[in-house]
C-alpha cells in the first residue's frame, strides 16, 4: 500500500487524494512510510540472569527436590543466594516447566466465628478426630491438637475403632502440658460438635484444665474449623505420608512423626514462616528481614537496569547480593 501510494504521488496525485482511495489518513501513511525504530524496553525490576540461575539451581538441590515452591523461596532468603518473592520463584520455575500449574479455588463460606476470639487476643486450643485404616480394615483414629494463631501442632493422639471422651481429654491434657506458660493465660478451647467433643465429661475436664468453657463452631459448618480441617488433609496427603499402612503400628509411627514435620514446614497462613518459628516469637523478625532483602534486591536490579540503559553495548552488570 505504501509503494502504491508513493507511485501515485510521483504520477501527480496529491498525498491526500491517494490516501482517500485506500480510506486511510495521510498521517497514517506517513507513519507507515517512515516507521520509527523500535527500542527494546526492559522492566527495571526484572530478575537478573544470575538470580534466575540461582533459583533453578536451588530447585535441583537434593534436599529441596519434591518440596513445595515455598521451601525454595525460604531457602533463598535463609542462604542469601537469592532474594525474590514467592511469585517470582514460582514464575521462574514455571518457565522451566519445573512446577505444576496452580489450582485456584474460592471458599464458599469465608466466615469463621472463632476469628473474633483471635482478634481479641485469645489463643485457641483446637482438636478434632479423623480415621486411618490398615490394609486389613482396622480403624485407627488420629486426634490432632494445635494452638492458634501460631498453628503449632502440639500432639497427635490415637484411639482404636472410635474416639471416646477419655481418649480426647487425654490428648488435650498431653498437649496442654507442652504449651509455653505465656499462652495459657488467655486460652480458649475450640472444636466442632462431634459426640466426643460435646460430651459433658469432656467439657468439664477441659473447663477445669483451661479455666474457660469450650467454644464450638456452628452445626454442619466445617469452615468454622478450617485450620484443623486443613491440617487433617495435610495429615493424610502430605508428601511424606505413606500411601498405605499394613499394621496399626505403621499408623502410630506416622502420627508420631507428623508434629516434627509439620511444625518445621513453612505455612502459607503464617506468611511462609514455620509454626515453630511463630511459636518462638521469630515470625516478625523473619518477615522484616525478608522485606529488607526484597527491597535490597529491587534496588540492585534497578541499578543494573539503569546501567544497561546507559551502556547498551556493554555486558550486563552482575551484582552479588549478600544477606542484610
Descriptive overview:
- The protein has 324 residues and is α/β, with parallel strands linked by helices.
- It folds into three domains: 2-33; 49-102 and 282-304, no CATH class; 116-263, Nucleotidyltransferase, domain 5 (2-Layer Sandwich), CATH 3.30.420.10.
- Helix content is 46%, strand content 11%.
- The protein has helices spanning 2-10, 15-21, 26-33, 49-59, 69-79, 86-95, 115-119, 165-176, 195-198, 200-210, 226-237, 248-263, 275-279, 283-310, and strands at residues 123-127, 130-133, 139-148, 152-160, 187-191, 214-216.
- Strands 1, 2, 3, 4, 5 and 6 form a six-stranded mixed beta sheet that branches.
- The chain starts with a helix and ends in a 14-residue tail after the last helix.
The first-level CATH class name of the largest domain: Alpha Beta
Order of helices and strands: HHHHHHHEEEEHEHHEHHHH
CATH superfamily of the largest domain: Ribonuclease H-like superfamily/Ribonuclease H
Which percent range fits the helix content?
Answer: 40-55%
Name of the CATH architecture of the largest domain: 2-Layer Sandwich
Please give the alpha-carbon distance between the first and last residues. 60 Å
What structural class do helix, strand and pairing data support? alpha/beta
Structurally, the number of domains stands at 3
Uncertain ranges: 107-112
Beta-strand content? 5-15%
CATH fold naming of the largest domain:
Nucleotidyltransferase, domain 5
* Shape, principal axes of CA atoms: elongated
Main beta sheet:
6 strands, mixed
- Specify the number of helices: 14
- The average pLDDT value, as a whole number, equals 87
Task: Report the radius of gyration as a whole number of Å.
Answer: 30 Å
Count the beta strands: 6
Amino acid at each position: 500500500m505504501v509503494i502504491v501510494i508513493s507511485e501515485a504521488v510521483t504520477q501527480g496525485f496529491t498525498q491526500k487524494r491517494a490516501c482517500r482511495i485506500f480510506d486511510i489518513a495521510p498521517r497514517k501513511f506517513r507513519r507507515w512510510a517512515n516507521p520509527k525504530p523500535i527500542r527494546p524496553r526492559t522492566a527495571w525490576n526484572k530478575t537478573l540472569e544470575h538470580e534466575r540461575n540461582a533459583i533453578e539451581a536451588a530447585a535441583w538441590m537434593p534436599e529441596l527436590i519434591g518440596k513445595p515452591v515455598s521451601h525454595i523461596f525460604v531457602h533463598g532468603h535463609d542462604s542469601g543466594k537469592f532474594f525474590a518473592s514467592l511469585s517470582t520463584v514460582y514464575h521462574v520455575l514455571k518457565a522451566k516447566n519445573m512446577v505444576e500449574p496452580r489450582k485456584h479455588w474460592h471458599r464458599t463460606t469465608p466466615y469463621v466465628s472463632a476469628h473474633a476470639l483471635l482478634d481479641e487476643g485469645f489463643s485457641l486450643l483446637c482438636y478434632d478426630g479423623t480415621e486411618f485404616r490398615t490394609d486389613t480394615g482396622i480403624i485407627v483414629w488420629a486426634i490432632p491438637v494445635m494452638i492458634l494463631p501460631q498453628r503449632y501442632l502440639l500432639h497427635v493422639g490415637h484411639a482404636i475403632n472410635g474416639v471416646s471422651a477419655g481418649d480426647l481429654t487425654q490428648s488435650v491434657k498431653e498437649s496442654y502440658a507442652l504449651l509455653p506458660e505465656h499462652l495459657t493465660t488467655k486460652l480458649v478451647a475450640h472444636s466442632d460438635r462431634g459426640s466426643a467433643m460435646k460430651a459433658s465429661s469432656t467439657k468439664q475436664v477441659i473447663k477445669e484444665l483451661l479455666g474457660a468453657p469450650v467454644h464450638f463452631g456452628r452445626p454442619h459448618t466445617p469452615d468454622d474449623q478450617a485450620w484443623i480441617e486443613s491440617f487433617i488433609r495435610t495429615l493424610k496427603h502430605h508428601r511424606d505420608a505413606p500411601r498405605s499402612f499394613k499394621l496399626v503400628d505403621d499408623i502410630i509411627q506416622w502420627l508420631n512423626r507428623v508434629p516434627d514435620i509439620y511444625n518445621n514446614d513453612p505455612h502459607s497462613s503464617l506468611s511462609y514462616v514455620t509454626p515453630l518459628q511463630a511459636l518462638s516469637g521469630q515470625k516478625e523478625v523473619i518477615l522484616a528481614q525478608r522485606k529488607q532483602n526484597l527491597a535490597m534486591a529491587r534496588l540492585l536490579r534497578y541499578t543494573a537496569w539503569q546501567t544497561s540503559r546507559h551502556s547498551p553495548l556493554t555486558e550486563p552488570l552482575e551484582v552479588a547480593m549478600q544477606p542484610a
